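Supplementary Methods, section 5.1.

A reviewer requested that the exact input to the structure prediction be made available. We therefore reproduce it here, unchanged from the version used in the analyses.
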Amino acid sequence: MNALKKIFGGDTRQFGMIFALVFLIVFFQILTGGITLTPENIINLFNGNSYILILAIGMVLVIIAGHIDLSVGSVAAFVGISVALIVRDWGVPSWVGIVIGLLLGALVGAWQGFWVAYVGIPAFIVTLAGMLLFRGLNQLLGKSNTIPVPGDFQTIGAGYLPEIGPDTGYNNLTLLLGLAAIAAIIWGELRRRKAAQALGADVDEMWVVVTRLVLICGAIAYATYLFATGRPGTSFPVPGIILAVLVLVYGFITSRTVVGRHIYAVGGNKHAAELSGVQAKRIDFLVMMNMSILAGLAGMIFVARSTASGPFDGVGWELDAIAAVFIGGAAVSGGVGTVVGSIVGGLVMALLNNGLQLMSVGADWTQIIKGLVLLVAVAFDVYNKSQGKRSIIGLLLKNFGSKTETKAA
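The structure derived from this sequence is encoded token-by-token as follows.
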């Protein structure tokens, strides 16, 4: 058990969700007769949920800062249909339309951020109004019609890495991408270990480091194999590349920058953060604007995958994004959460959807099960922490001797 503690030590909530994700994969793989881990299903699962995972990245920053955004689905639909109309009617190149869409998302975010940060209206009310406002604008602009987008625009939502090099039976770029990820992880782990030794800090034994690297790199290698052997002419999807870049960028921002530390400070105790010199209003403004930019990007990716913008785009997206963030370990009261945890939470929800669909479970029961999963996860966290006990994730790892969480949500 001590060995497991060393290998899986760290954030018990985050690792607990990874174990839960692995459990669901094995569970559905058995019940579906091996269909879950086929290359075709993994590619479909990833493509069908990439826009929700992008929304979860922005939503976790909003929730860490102590707010909530109910408008993301409507904002995504509004930006999506606006860009579709601009590309179709103005005749601008697709890349120009994408830039305009991001700028439009920034303007929407600045509008909502102004009311939250500088007027002082709660984000719940501002974004509830925004949900109605931008849903109405979506209907007004599109006149309840679908607006098609050109083929080159569809690349950001339905494109794949191209085939290059000799015919190996695999997608060579996908293999190279997987090898690069494995090399980066090994290099980063060894670099951190060397830096810690230079400072005289305690480091894990080499067998612990090797075991951890084997597990992580093995998972990446298997995922690479699945993507590289997908349907003929396909490989790792372009939305996956966009998502990976966003995870790296926002993971760095939240863990290694002053802005990231200030977001956690504002969410943990806004008054204390202000006394420490943190510009809380500026942070509130930035997280709201950033959320709308990512909502605009998610909307464009969905439109690109669907080949057209429709009147019902974005319906219910905010609920999926919020659920992903809370299942991924964010605290209801703010100040706690990670980008990686939100991605894992989003994958848990995506796998539930996918697995239940493969088992021919109806949409009604799927919604019931997802609602219960969210409610139970958050309720157990809130109850156990109010009693001074481990969270639900801590309970999953109590036999591993994991550290007791010190920060209450």
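DSSP finds 17 helices and two strands in the chain. These observations are discussed further in the main text.
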